[in-house]
Design brief:
60 residues; mainly alpha
Length: 60
């Protein structure tokens, strides 16, 4: 991630760290056999949509 900060804008790269929450939910479901509720699915979709919208704004 440090290399990414060197070549990208902080305002775009920092929200991408939110994908750690998505990874945590997926790993909890796969490894720990936790239940994935509708609310968690909606949260994952909102996080991914936000990252995609913000990451798409790094046009020069």
């Amino acid at each position: 991630m440090i290399v990414a900060y060197r070549y990208g804008k902080l305002s775009v790269l920092q929200p991408m760290l939110s994908l750690n929450y998505v990874l945590s939910i997926v790993l909890a479901a796969l490894v720990l056999k936790e239940n994935i509720t509708i609310l968690k699915c909606i949260g994952v979709i909102v996080i991914i949509a936000g990252v995609v919208l913000i990451a798409g704004g790094d046009e020069e």
